[in-house]
Amino acid sequence: LNMEVEDPSWIELDQESDTQTFESLLDSYISHCGEPIIVVIVLKNENFYNVFKNICYSRNVVSQVVNAKTCFKMNLSVASNVLRQVNSKLGGDLYNMEFPKEISANTMLIGIDVCHQGQKSIVGFCASIN
User: What is the pTM assigned to this prediction?
Assistant: First the structure.
């Protein structure tokens, strides 16, 4: 992925439900060190997802939440997927493709897929931008 990951600063909570402490520690970090590039939050209880995301969002801080269960089964594939998500949130590409010389650099590649479940259909769409 060509990402350079530096040693992080840590905010650890004794109780995952103690979102007020997280909020004040994040504010303290921002006032002393400036806005972090990204905040990665590891949660055991997914019920707190929205609270932590909203705290970061209200401070205009990019965040990535990872379920603690995911960390316990961490392997190269899982770690790569988490890093891809972080990279994407920081403006990086998820994937890079090389086109044959016959295709112009100004060509947009578009992918569309449809999944039908009874009366409902879901459309997936993606397109290259560079």
Answer: 0.71
